[in-house]
Amino acid sequence: MRTDSRLSRMLHVLLHMARHDGPFTSEQIAQMLGTNAVVVRRTMAGLRQAGYVRSGGGHGGGWLIDCDLAQVTLLDVHRAVGGAKLFALGHEHPNPDCGVEKVVNAAIDDALQQAEALLLARLAQVSLADLAAQFDALCRKGGWDRRTAKAHLV
């Protein structure tokens, strides 16, 4: 089963944008992520609609971060990029006449609801500023310039 990596990929992009002087084109972001620029534009549209990024066209245009990093949580970004279902577990064909299936489905549903609530609560506790601070600390520790510590960008 393929995993949905939109959240981690867009967090990656947002942090690079926060530490970059100037816009990134969809093509540059696509190269960074190893994907297509159309996919980037579609995903970035949700971030733009949420007010986290803005875009400009023409020469020198592209995507820019447009938010206070301390005010945006990982949960906010998850929702802005389409907030995929968090878990693939579940039951596909409930049989209302089977008591065993009712008990099994109830146990699975309860566990999934608790796990999802815990994960969403944790995502709501971490801001983009928290991640940026961790990145900055990593750069200091490694002796890197945080603005140039992104070799995979063109």
From TrEMBL:
Pfam families: Rrf2
Superkingdom of this protein's organism: Bacteria
Stretches that traverse the bilayer: none
GO cellular component, one term: cytosol
InterPro entries in UniProt: Tscrpt_reg_Rrf2, WH-like_DNA-bd_sf, WH_DNA-bd_sf
SUPFAM superfamilies the record matches: Winged helix' DNA-binding domain
Gene Ontology MF terms in the entry: DNA-binding transcription factor activity
UniProt-recorded name of the protein: Transcriptional regulator
Origin species: Pseudoxanthomonas composti
